[in-house]
Amino acid sequence: MSVKAKINNTSIKALQIEDKRINDTEVSGFHARISSKGKITYYLFYRINSKQANFCLGIHGQVTPTQARDLAKNKAAEITKGVDVQSKKKENKEKAKLAKLSTLSIFIEQKYQPWLETRNAKTAKATIDNLTAAFPHFFKMQLDEINAWQVEKWRSEKRKSGLKPSSINRRLNDLKGCLSRAVEWEIIDNHDLNKVKALKVDNAKVRYLTADENKRLRNALRKRDIDIKSQRKSANEHRTSRGYELLPDLTKISYVDYLEPVVLLAINTGMRRGELLSLTWANVEVNNEFKTLTIVSDNAKSGKTRHIPLNNEASRVLSNWQQYTGDQGLVFKGKDGKQLKEMRKSWNNLLERAEISDFRFHDLRHDFASKLVMAGVDLNTVRELLGHADLAMTLRYAHLAPEHKAAAVNLIG
Q1: 294 C-beta neighbours (distance < 10 Å), count
Q2: For position 46, which CATH number holds?
Q3: Which of 73, 251, 354, 393 has the smallest number of CB atoms closer than 10 Å to its CB?
């Protein structure tokens, strides 16, 4: 018994063991088989030079129905040109062994990393760095030697060391993605890492500022500014009495350094720390007619350019900061005039001054999203402002505050 239907997520989910296989209605020869244990494998059946063959496209869970379909189309096009793709696959494996591409290290260096960089250079570096840091003991291994048991052992060690489930899942997904590409590119036949299921993570826990914390954070920023200006004034009085060269006067400027404008801009735009620190004045437009800033694709995690309207406070912050820094180059610079790389110390000191605990700089992004949702902004608009690819990520960042939910229920009390 077999089923005829377009192979997609819906039809694959509906495939039963008694069906045995599903034949695609659009791509000739493209089909999926289900084993007695429920394992689904994609194939392309073809004939060439009086020969029949079933070309394995991949295992469901390692490749998606869409990826299998695209691969089937590509292989069908090769067959039309007279290429025996099954024989070519065997040749590719032999070449891979001769070129030592079967080790994780060399596969990443010669194949996977160059491919990632053509898609998004910024995320490519993060992915490779994560793989290198997380799985150094796998790098000298053959790709087909990396299996679920070894990964489970690695995961158990990481859990004992205190690494968070979400961090473990991210690293594991990077490794799964790498090996799935090796399967797709016919370096190895398959991998079994899909047996290693993701750890459960409570995504409902989103940290944001309470009204009181927001007030304390802003007061701490202002108090910090006043203290630094007072210290500078005292220092210059001391220098004047001794005839020393004076330090720059800070009394007439809005912000003594980058911290207050960075924090206020994060609160009002939901920008990531990296997006803020890589922002240039060329991508900021502040005037009476139009107020916006642009996050260019190279600096966006998604790899896509997006535009963020500026509210009154964000616009005022940037205008005041521009008067001090000028309108060229990076908006926020370090003491050496180059891009700021780290602000952890000043941020932690600020939290201590504001008496706020368990709050990361990235949580300002959660705060921004939550405030928008509580103000009645639709989720798709929130998604666009945050630069998320889909609504699933927006839901992760935009859970409502408990007091807001309580107020909503009380409306019908």
Answers
A1: 17
A2: 3.30.160.390
A3: 251
Please answer whether residues 251 and 233 qualify as being in contact, where contact means their C-beta atoms are separated by less than 8 angstroms.
Answer: yes
Residue 234's H or E segment, with its range, is helix 211-242
pLDDT in tens, 219-229: 999 999 999 99
Instruction: Report the pLDDT value the prediction gives residue 394, as an integer from 0 to 100.
Output: 76
Residue 382 lies in domain: 211-410
> Do 157 and 273 have their domain in common?
no
Q: What is the pLDDT of residue 301?
A: 65
Q: In what order do the strands lie in the sheet with 306-309?
A: 284-286, 291-295, 306-309
Residue-level pLDDT at 31 = 94
pTM of full prediction above 0.70: no
**Among 52, 64, 46, 54, CA closest to 7:** 64
Beta strands in 60-211 (DSSP E): none
pLDDT digit string, tens, across residues 387-407 = 887 777 777 666 665 666 677
Residues of the chain falling short of pLDDT 50: none
> How many structural domains does the chain have?
3
| pLDDT 10s digits, 13-28 | 989 989 899 999 999 9
- Dig out the tokens for 328 from the structure: 């060229």
Beta bridge partners, 103, equal 142
Distances (CA, A) of 267 to 206, 253, 290, 385, 407: 15, 21, 20, 13, 24
DSSP state for residue 232 in the 8-state scheme: H
Q: What is the CATH number of the domain that holds 126?
A: 1.10.150.130
CA distance linking residue 338 with residue 326, whole number of Å:
15
pLDDT of 390: 75
- 122 token code pair: 């910024």
Which one, of 16, 15, 86, 90, lies nearest residue 48 by Cα? 86
Does any domain span residue 153?
yes
pLDDT score at 203: 58
Nearest one of 174, 203, 326, 331 to 264, comparing CA atoms: 331
225 with 260, same domain: the answer is yes
Residues 165 and 89 in one domain: no
User: Edge-to-edge, what's the strand order for the sheet holding 51-59?
Assistant: 3-4, 21-23, 30-34, 40-48, 51-59
Residue 202 located in a structural domain: no
pLDDT at 354: 94
Residues 50 and 133 in one domain: no
Longest dimension (CA), the chain: 100
How many Cβ atoms from other residues are within 10 Å of residue 122's Cβ? 17
pLDDT score of 372: 87
